Amino acid sequence: xxxxxxxxxxxxxxxxxxxxxxxxxxxxxxxxxxxxxxxxxxxxxxxxxxxxxxxxxxxxxxxxxxxxxxxxxxxxxxxxxxxxxxxxxxxxxxxxxxxxxxxxxxxxxxxxxxxxxxxxxxxxxxxxxxxxxxxxxxxxxxxxxxxxxxxxxxxxxxxxxxxxxxxxxxxxxxxxxxxxxxxxxxxxxxxxxxxxxxxxxxxxxxxxxxxxxxxxxxxxxxxxxxxxxxxxxxxxxxxxxxxxxxxxxxxxxxxxxxxxxxxxxxxxxxxxxxxxxxxxxxxxxxxxxxxxxxxxxx
Amino acid sequence: xxxxxxxxxxxxxxxxxxxxxxxxxxxxxxxxxxxxxxxxxxxxxxxxxxxxxxxxxxxxxxxxxxxxxxxxxxxxxxxxxxxxxxxxxxxxxxxxxxxxxxxxxxxxxxxxxxxxxxxxxxxxxxxxxxxxxxxxxxxxxxxxxxxxxxxxxxxxxxxxxxxxxxxxxxxxxxxxxxxxxxxxxxxxxxxxxxxxxxxxxxxxxxxxxxxxxxxxxxxxxxxxxxxxxxxxxxxxxxxxxxxxxxxxxxxxxxxxxxxxxxxxxxxxxxxxxxxxxxxxxxxxxxxxxxxxxxxxxxxxxxxxxxxxxxxxxxxxxxxxxxxxxxxxxxxxxxxxxxxxxxxxxxxxxxxxxxxxxxxxxxxxxxxxxxxxxxxxxxxxxxxxxxxxxxxxxxxxxxxxxxxxxxxxxxxxxxxxxxxxxxxxxxxxxxxxxxxxxxxxxxxxxxxxxxxxxxxxxxxxxxxxxxxxxxxxxxxxxxxxxxxxxxxxxxxxxxxxxxxxxxxxxxxxxxxxxxxxxxxxxxxxxxxxxxxxxxxxxxxxxxxxxxxxxxxxxxxxxxxxxxxxxxxxxxxxxxxxxxxxxxxxxxxxxxxxxxxxxxxxxxxxxxxxxxxxxxxxxxxxxxxxxxxxxxxxxxxxxxxxxxxxxxxxxxxxxxxxxxxxxxxxxxxxxxxxxxxxxxxxxxxxxxxxxxxxxxxxxxxxxxxxxxxxxxxxxxxxxxxxxxxxxxxxxxxxxxxxxxxxxxxxxxxxxxxxxxxxxxxxxxxxxxxxxxxxxxxxxxxxxxxxxxxxxxxxxxxxxxxxxxx
Lengths: 298, 803
What we know:
The complex is a heterodimer.
Chain A: E1 3-12, E2 20-25, E3 46-49, H1 59-63, E4 69-72, E5 75-78, H2 88-92, E6 98-101, E7 103-105, H3 107-116, H4 118-124, E8 127-132, H5 139-151, E9 155-160, H6 166-172, E10 178-182, H7 188-195, H8 200-211, E11 216-222, H9 230-243, E12 248-253, H10 258-263, H11 276-289, E13 293-296
Parallel strand pairs in A: 2-8, 8-9, 9-10, 10-11, 11-12, 12-13
Antiparallel strand pairs in A: 1-2, 1-7, 3-6, 4-5
Helix pairs in contact in A: 3-5, 5-6
Chain B: H1 3-14, H2 21-32, E1 36-38, H3 40-52, H4 59-73, E2 94-96, H5 106-114, H6 124-138, H7 143-150, H8 153-161, H9 180-184, H10 187-200, H11 208-241, H12 246-261, H13 270-287, H14 299-302, H15 304-313, H16 318-333, H17 342-347, E3 356-360, H18 372-384, E4 390-395, H19 401-411, E5 420-422, H20 423-432, H21 437-440, E6 444-446, E7 450-452, E8 457-466, H22 467-475, E9 479-480, E10 485-486, H23 497-529, H24 533-538, H25 542-545, E11 556-564, H26 566-582, H27 588-596, H28 603-611, H29 621-639, E12 650-655, H30 660-666, H31 696-704, E13 713-714, E14 717-720, H32 728-743, E15 748-753, H33 756-764, E16 773-775, E17 780-782, H34 788-796, E18 799-800
Parallel strand pairs in B: 1-2, 3-4, 4-5, 8-11, 11-12, 12-13, 14-15, 14-18
Antiparallel strand pairs in B: 5-15, 6-7, 9-10, 16-17
Helix pairs in contact in B: 2-16, 3-4, 3-6, 4-11, 7-23, 10-11, 11-12, 13-16, 16-18, 18-19, 19-32, 22-23, 23-29, 26-29
């Protein structure tokens, strides 16, 4: 069977120990407005247009068999009702301004990429990270790929929102060495409001992983105005301490990626970042004072 | 200015921290002194040849006497507070000229004095001495004139078209480095050896006369350096007599004693060892203007013995050793590169004279060579941050990770030093070239990335070869489109990719034939007319062979050609194969029209070339396999030439550019990789600037598909964002990445840790960034003093934000 991915980033150093190859799986059940990889949310192939790379040669407009593309002054417009995502426009685009995001791949394709970097893994105790999107949305595909990777003694990390069924999590467990587990906020209603889903299952899955002694690193994206208040921090502490006394936490400061949203013809909000550095430090100190192991960045 | 840039520049500035006030003062003096032409040597040499030179002596003896005359009569400056003496000219940053090799015209002097980048101050006395004495005597008589007179028309055509440069037209051969011998041998020991060799000579030897003359010359050259040291000793005593400060007085007396001992006798203390070497360094760089000046080679090995003995006896502390090393460091910085003009200036546009101090590696017995001194030298580099000397970290699998991480820490503030070399593969190269295992383990690096058996080999570089230009000539069937002149052989328009490759190889062979013939003539001229008896004292086995360094006296002799634009030419070939022959996106005639018009009206095509075409440096086998084949073919072709006529040197390849990739780009039209006419070509073996988009480890993978073991050295530049190396665990990861790169067969890598924002800001306000040092090729330089084209090229290099 095939899996839908939108990027393979080789030589990542922020997604687990050592030097890593990160595979970004496309599709996510959550829809956080601050998502750094908005092209990973939709579980199907999409088009992306990067304005600064475009030389306005009109090749894409001319070649489109469905007349789905047009220029509104210097901005390329996409008519989703007409587009069939055939990719001809991206193929003819000379600058890669227009790109198809999302590619169906087989397990061999994944392994061929990973194989190239095995020397780097050996030397650095690195490995492979599945990120996204939400990798567990494609559990069946993972179950085809992971056993082969593990058979080569490669370290595997999964970067997950935790929003998945207990059964799916259970199935991949034997093949995963590290979970990079996203925790957006503790409050249920607020979680629903900001991500589109409730967090009961996320918390439950996390408890289950910890009770099974799996290696877990909690990743908290620090989003100004969303989860950086004093009460948010207090809630994190109470929740995290209830899990395990010495759990590791990574704080990931918010980045403005509104250009990516624009490229996908999507709208998003922008957070105010002027006090972000300070907030991140404040949260870090507070968490540390409570005995948690905290690092800024992945 | 953005805070990020401010932080970056602060981090750089705060990393300069000389050990004490004395060194700080000397460093300030060295940095602030302007590069100046000293007419003294030119005058002495002219006087010597005009009035003093005996008639009917052999060339070696004549050269030795000329050297002796300089050493007897040159000024003896002592920098205030310095601990080591000997310097060319009358003070810091003065550069003598060498009219017997290249005689500067008045216009040249004017150019040097007024050019915007890398000027040399020229005073009236220099100008008038040149006008009245130097030029009238040397015009038409210098080596440079002799070389051009003896070059064929096709050589000159190719030279003028920018197919190659000629290293020896303004500077003498050199390209060698000191080995262990220097630190174990006094001049008197060598004189003794000369006497012995003289007695061994037999009249039945057909070279009896030449050998006899060479040995005589060596003996005179040995005396010359003794005279120089004695004069210094006397001078230091005079200074001591007039010194009011008691501390300094004691120091001056101590220095005078040292100068009485070395270089006559082998050094026995740390201080003596440094002074001993420095006298020899000054001697060699006074005798001629050899390429890459001279270098102590593997300093942490050569002087470790003295360091240990002195530390044990209490004569030396770690601080004192560091102070001496820092004083030693400034001696190098006070001797800028000799003034070059025209194409030689273009190919090596810098004040840096490429003296390279090696640390790390293996000992002769094959064990780990990293010692306390290796770390101490890294600290000196870290605290000094001067333009010169350059360094090289020789990294073997047997060296500890701690050493690598320490080197990366020194590298992280962004001055571009030290570069890292794969020592195990250097040894492999040396063995491939036929050196003994022991000599291979004493090898190292000089210049940029040039490997050699240090102290035992003359590995002479002969010039850069412009590969993209040769492809341009190929595409134009033998014609240079810039001039319309036919300088290549006639080849036909290719019907497929194989035919294109065939034609390219034929053109390459055609030009190499001409260049190699030229090299042979130049080698013969230097061997006959410009022997270097003083340098010959120090490189094994010139004395034993009674043969000059320039005539093949050394244990190993090699001759190199340096290939430039490797990434560009690989990408061009990949682009034609992909777009014209495989995908048939564009026709060959359309491609030629687009190139001719510099892509005017062909922007779509250019963008496809830039963005939708396989490129070297992205771990893409399509492009990388072309690159690999290119290396194999070029090396095979170069090595197929028979040994050189006089030195019996084997022919070898380096892949390095210094600054010539900018000049070569300026004479090369638009290329099929999407590069516009006149823009720089790629440097070293680095991917084309900005074409590597898959991260640094993809670059490493691509590079390692090629077989660099059969080259003498291959230079890879990478630019890192400062954020990447801020944290220690990131440095450790970078270390792992480098280990993997070396395991895969990488030869060398160096890093520019600098943001493009900072470089652009510096271009806008150069006066605020005069101290901003960046990596250029195998050396670092002050960014704002580089020519604009080179600045832009460095900005354009891909900035790796992730590994």
